[in-house]
Amino acid sequence: MTMNEQKKCVTIFVISDSAGETASKLAAASMAQYPTIDFSLFRRTFAKEEDKLRKALEDAKRENAMVLHTIVNDRLVKIANDFFEKHNLYHFDILTPPVAEIERLTGVAPTREPGALHHLNENYFKRIEAMEFAVKYDDGKDPRGFLEADVLLLGVSRTSKTPLSLFLANKNLKVANLPLIPEAHLPKQLWETNPKKIVGLTNDPDILNGIRKERMRTYGLPADTSYSDIEKIRKELTFANDLYEKLGCVVINVASLSIEETASMILNALNLEDHSYYATESPEA
């Protein structure tokens, strides 16, 4: 195939015997590397029975797709692999190689249970508790939560405090956040909180100006208001950065960062672990 004949549109099928989140994330990460290519992404999930799997495979064949799959049942894996070989379809088995290597290292056979990652176990309920905590202590509604939190996020309006709180809560972390307004009183609990669990979020004035203007437009209001005034924004950011210096906390500029990137930086900076996938205790305990 010559360069001129190469595809400018790629079809990817995610096939899974569970929710397909792992393969979907890999597909998204791969697609992000090719901003000039058009992609079609199809998900065929909860393919736990042979007939449903074969239907998904035929769909992928019809679209001449590349397939990313997470299937744990040995028999279904063989059916899928035989199909791919027969029809010369590109496929990537995400689970089988690492699962097989763990079995080789430990001598312990895997459970081969679809969706085992999403058990409603103690770890799951801790995550729900963390999400409820984030909602309860969002936007500084109750500063008493600062002292209970694993992470306290500070920032002026539109620095992604709430989305970050919920994203980190999904990693089993209790997160509170406080919006910073120069004229507003700072709660005494802020000064009682260990600065090693505080993160100050900041942004570039011009970027924040654009974000706030767009926010006004979504409300059907004029874009140019005191909320989006560039000089007011600069004063807010100066106030916030001065406060961060006084607190001695970690500071992260979110201007060019995604929620995922910012969250990862927070985990690294505060030496926290992502507990969302960890078992809380051994099955034999």
In words, what does this structure look like?
This protein has 285 residues and is of the alpha/beta class. The protein folds into two domains: 9-118, Rossmann fold; 122-270, 3-Layer(aba) Sandwich (Rossmann fold), CATH 3.40.50. 44% of the residues lie in helices and 15% in strands. The protein has eleven helices and eight strands. It has a four-stranded parallel beta sheet with strand order 2-1-3-4, with helices on both faces. A four-stranded parallel beta sheet has the order 6-5-7-8, with helices on both faces. α1 links the parallel β1 and β2 (38-44). The radius of gyration is 24 Å and the shape is elongated. It starts with 8 loop residues before the first strand and ends in a 16-residue tail after the last helix.
Overview in brief:
With 285 residues, the protein is of the alpha/beta class. Helices cover 44% and strands 15% of the residues.
In terms of topology, how is this protein built?
Elements: E1 9-16, H1 21-31, E2 38-44, H2 50-62, E3 66-70, H3 74-87, E4 91-93, H4 96-106, H5 122-136, H6 145-148, E5 151-155, H7 161-169, E6 175-179, H8 188-192, E7 198-202, H9 205-218, H10 230-247, E8 250-253, H11 259-269
Parallel strand pairs: 1-2, 1-3, 3-4, 5-6, 5-7, 7-8
Helix pairs in contact: 2-3, 5-7, 7-11, 9-10
Shape: elongated
**Oligomeric organization of the protein chains:** single chain
The number of distinct structural domains comes to: 2
* Poorly predicted spans: 1-5, 279-285
Main sheet summary:
4 strands, parallel
Strand order of the largest sheet: 2-1-3-4
Structural class: alpha/beta
